[in-house]
């Protein structure tokens, strides 16, 4: 475990905590895309199936449980908690997210490292995670007033992806056999999707203004 | 080397 990887995981954890704080404490999910959250729940459910078959470390298992538990509870909160559900921007959150799932599944069936059930699902989860943020980014663009917590949530998620790229660069140079093209390319695509958001986030921070994305 | 080294990532 290197410092970039740990920082990436902690940033990911922080993003989830920020979102849970908003939903649990403020009882609001305004500006949060349920579509993206559903995709993340699928991502973690398909990637972490190896919880039953392989053991890496206590850290690894605990973090997997945290991400599984938090992603599913966020979805359930947004769908079934009366107060939280009322704050959901249903009319704005219209991205056809199921249309992302099938192409990712087909791609995983075609391009993978090993053709086994767990491996194909694991690869599918990488492809799906790469595009899972799209409904959220579209919703942000449609939302006039992006509150601080929602902005921070997306900023932290993007930061987590960026740190993972540094982690791969570090591992490539320190672990001679560490070459994983599928992970790298889907991770890179995922990080690039945040580029636009990062630009406007840094602008609003620099000018000390409220975050607003151009339509 | 472990084939699944990347799987220790989250």
Description:
The complex is a heterodimer of chains A (215) and B (10). Chain A is mainly α and 215 residues long. Chain A has one domain. Chain A is 72% helix and 0% strand. In chain A, helix 6 packs parallel to helix 9 and helix 8 packs antiparallel against helix 9. Chain A starts with a helix and ends in a 9-residue tail after the last helix. With 10 residues, chain B is mostly loops. Chain B is 0% helix and 0% strand. The termini of chain B are far apart. The mean pLDDT of chain B is 78.
Q: Which term fits the overall shape of chain B?
A: elongated
Helical percentage of chain B: under 10%
Number of helices of chain A: 10
Number of strands of chain A: 0
Q: State the end-to-end distance of chain A.
A: 41 Å
Membrane topology (chain A): Multi-pass membrane protein
Pfam family, one (chain A): ER_lumen_recept
GO molecular function (chain A): ER retention sequence binding
GO biological process, one term (chain A): vesicle-mediated transport
Q: Can I get a quick summary?
A:
The complex is a heterodimer of chains A (215) and B (10). Chain A has 215 residues and is mainly alpha-helical. Chain A has helices at residues 3-25, 34-47, 58-80, 82-86, 98-110, 117-131, 134-142, 148-174, 181-193, 195-206.
List keywords for this structure.
heterodimer; A: about 220 residues; mainly alpha; 10 helices; globular; B: about 10 residues; little secondary structure; ER-Golgi transport (chain A)
Secondary structure elements and pairings:
The complex is a heterodimer of chains A (215) and B (10).
Chain A: H1 3-25, H2 34-47, H3 58-80, H4 82-86, H5 98-110, H6 117-131, H7 134-142, H8 148-174, H9 181-193, H10 195-206
Chain B: no helix or strand
Keywords (chain A): Endoplasmic reticulum, ER-Golgi transport, Membrane, Protein transport, Receptor, Transmembrane, Transmembrane helix, Transport
InterPro entries (chain A): ER_ret_rcpt
Transmembrane segments (chain A): 55-77, 98-115, 121-140, 152-170, 182-201
